[in-house]
Design brief:
Elements (H helix, E strand, L loop, with lengths): L2 H13 L5 E5 L5 H7 L4 E6 L2 H10 L4 E4 L9 H10 L25 H5 L4 E4 L13 H12 L7 E7 L4 H11 L4 E4 L3 E7 L27
Parallel strand pairs: 1-2, 1-4, 2-3, 4-5
Antiparallel strand pairs: 5-7, 6-7
Helix pairs in contact: 6-7
């Protein structure tokens, strides 16, 4: 990740009231850096590869990493988005505890405490999505949005960063579940959203609920 992408995230972490809660989807080359930048806070990593997560924890005991089994396929993005929008008042509500959800896009098998923490910053930098059967980042983006809107306490705002922002999944799912009105700034490689806590009876993800899955980037990238 280039410095131009690192800086907006590190700036938010620096301004975050201590202790800062930082959730990262994806174990990457920056894993140790994220932990160091949030030295007084809680930093949790979620990765698709349980062997790599175990390896990282063994090699770096200070790293708090968990594996998750993604059930999505990159090629099914449009169908999964349509299913979530159909279930927006039921299983795929924007405000809920995903531990008890059957929403196809929601991650419901993370450690229980992940759903209870009021996350201040969330970075989506995984899982993989560069071939049709890869899991893609649809579930990570949807889950980030639900966690941000479902906070019980702490700062009512959550900073959500999408890396590889030019990718189709990031563009489309960012529009659908994080919402254009929440997009603070964007470059080709990083999108920075700020989401606010929502009422638990909310039944739409965005104020402008007419967003369409066809409104994403025309980029052919699919990370």
């Amino acid at each position: 990740m280039p410095h131009s992408d690192l800086k907006p995230i590190s700036d938010v972490l620096r301004k975050c009231s201590s202790p800062c809660n930082f959730l990262i989807f994806g174990l990457t080359h920056e894993t140790l850096l994220w932990k160091a930048l949030n030295h007084n806070g809680r930093t949790v990593f979620i990765d698709e590869n349980r062997y790599y997560a175990a390896y990282i924890e063994e090699k770096h005991p200070e790293i708090d990493a968990y594996d998750v089994q993604y059930t999505t396929k990159r090629s099914e993005m449009k169908e999964l988005i349509a299913s979530a929008k159909e279930q927006v008042a039921n299983e795929c509500k924007p405000v809920q505890n995903l531990l008890f959800s059957d929403c196809k896009l929601g991650l419901n098998d993370l450690p229980n405490h992940v759903y209870e923490v009021d996350w201040d910053v969330i970075l989506v930098d995984g899982p993989r999505g560069d071939w049709p059967d890869a899991p893609g980042r649809m579930s990570a983006i949807f889950t980030a949005g639900v966690l941000a809107r479902s906070k019980k306490g702490g700062n009512p705002k959550t900073h959500v960063f999408l890396h590889d922002f030019s990718g189709e999944v990031q563009q489309v799912c960012g529009n659908e579940f994080l919402c254009k009105e929440n997009l603070l700034e964007a470059s080709e490689s990083l999108g920075h959203y700020v989401l606010e806590r929502m009422d638990e009876n909310s039944v739409q993800y965005c104020k402008n609920s007419s967003s369409s899955s066809g409104s994403g980037s025309s980029s052919s990238s699919s990370t």
